[in-house]
Design brief:
The structure holds 2 protein chains of 2 kinds. By secondary structure, chain A is an all-beta fold. Chain A is built from no helices and 11 strands. The model of chain A has no long low-confidence stretch (mean pLDDT 92). The chains are: A mainly beta, B mainly beta.
């Protein structure tokens, strides 16, 4: 099973709202990722967690706050977003993130619209 | 840093004809290359990867990719295209940057299979 699940599928929020995106995997993977993808563009890496510790933050604005409560779950907390933050947010996981041969498996994404 | 290039924004092919989606890479050291497919409003699905060994890599849904070291290419191929293969295809390379392993994606190629 190579399934990564994400909730919600769609999210509409105002610029003053606080919301969270959730991601879950049960493959025993120890690395998890958040990506942002604009229409017809490649995914852009935002954060990487390895063994539940934040290992990469690609200079993401503080209005995005990741959290990894345990090895199976990854959250992305959103606050005071801007309309330009509207995008497809993808979660991915991989075995451990450190090996060159590691393969990332993606969830279906959350389509976020900021009004 | 490692990189991949997808020279074609869009590829059109008639159903039943062979298809090729092009990718070239630029790496120092051994290349670790991947192909992903993205259907509309969905996450990325892993198709195949090249790590080492045979230059012809077989993947999901009848796709294969040919690794060519002399031409620094990793083209995705399928002998007979289906309308359902219409999607956005991303080539990717494993990159070691900032002290950690990451995946760098190409710009994507939209494949349109014409009935």
């Amino acid at each position: 099973d190579t399934e990564v699940t994400q909730t919600p599928k769609h999210l509409v929020m105002g610029m003053t709202n606080k919301k969270s995106l959730k991601c879950e995997q049960h493959m025993g993977h120890r690395a998890m990722y958040w990506y942002k993808q604009k229409a017809k563009k490649p995914p852009e890496l935002m954060f990487v967690y390895s063994y539940e510790k934040l290992s990469i933050n690609e200079s993401v604005p503080s209005r995005f706050s990741p959290e990894c409560p345990n090895s199976s779950l990854l959250n992305l907390h959103l606050h005071a977003l801007q309309p330009e933050d509207s995008a497809l947010y993808l979660c991915a996981s991989s075995q451990d993130g450190g090996a060159s041969t590691d393969t990332q498996y993606f969830g279906p994404g959350t389509r976020l619209t900021v009004l | 840093a490692q990189s991949v290039a997808q020279p074609e924004d869009q590829v059109n092919v008639a159903e039943g004809n062979p298809l090729t989606v092009k990718c070239t890479y630029s790496v120092s050291g051994n290349p670790y290359l991947f192909w992903y497919v993205q259907y509309p409003n969905r996450g990325l699905q892993f198709l195949l990867k090249y790590i080492t060994g045979d230059n012809l890599v077989k993947g999901s849904y009848g796709f294969e990719a040919e690794f060519n070291k002399s031409q620094t290419s990793f083209h995705l191929k399928k002998p007979s295209a289906l309308v359902s293969d219409s999607a956005l295809y991303f080539c990717a390379v494993r990159d070691y940057s900032g002290g950690y392993q990451k995946v760098t994606f190409g710009t994507g190629t939209k494949l349109q299979v014409i009935p």
